[in-house]
Amino acid sequence: MKKILLIISLxxxxxxxxxxxxxQNDTVSKPTATEIPAIPTVSAKQAILIDGKxxxxxxxxxxxxxxxxxxxxxxxxxxVVLDICREQNISLKEKxxxxxxxxxxxxxxxxxxxxxxxxxxxxxxxxMLVSGNDGATALASQMGGKTExxxxxxxxxxxxxxxxxxxxxxPTGLFSENHYTTARDLANxxxxxxxxxxxxxxxxTRQYKNYYNKNKTIYQYEGGNGIKIGYTRKSxxxxxxxSERNGTLLICVLLSDGNWFNDAxxxxxxxxxxxxxxxx
Length: 280
Hints:
The protein starts with a helix and ends with a helix. Helices cover about 40% and strands about 15% of the residues.
């Protein structure tokens, strides 16, 4: 009997030891605090972060509230120009004449003069890299027949791709109460724009001739590849930033944000961390 009790005791001790070993050496991965990224705090009035390929929303803050795009408007301006070129089989190397209404437009400028001949390509780089309002006006006037017709196409395009809170009144982004968008709509516009290879090539370019890209994302952020900054006194600072790592494209929109680039980088860090966790 004593031997039986001793054997039972030994077996119980062995079993307990095995359980302790498995508990201490559990190979099943568990999420830890370091694996779950903290949700960033941003100072933008409206913001959103999306997967640029699927459209999945990864973060949002008042993303459907009315905001003002400033020069990020030119994303749609460039899209419509590229649409017209495709529809009418027009080369980006074709030259257009700078109309009188483009000379001296307020705000950021390419310093165009009435009667100058500029290629469509040159003007597209000028509006996307240095945000030339005169370049946007020239393209809208000459590609649309009239600026009003071109702006109409901008609004039609926005509606076609599913924007519900956007209305454009000009191709430049100069402030108007009736020229507005939402962070969600602007992310949607940017996502569609980045699907166009010509557009994507332009906005990732650091320098084109004497144009230097004002979007610091492409210089400062790993994988940064676009797309547009904007500012007016009434709109505040606006930024649409994009970056790509390991096949994942992120697009971040910040409206009325004084800490625009740092906030964009925090959001994209967060997004890439999420994608990394999901892939594991």
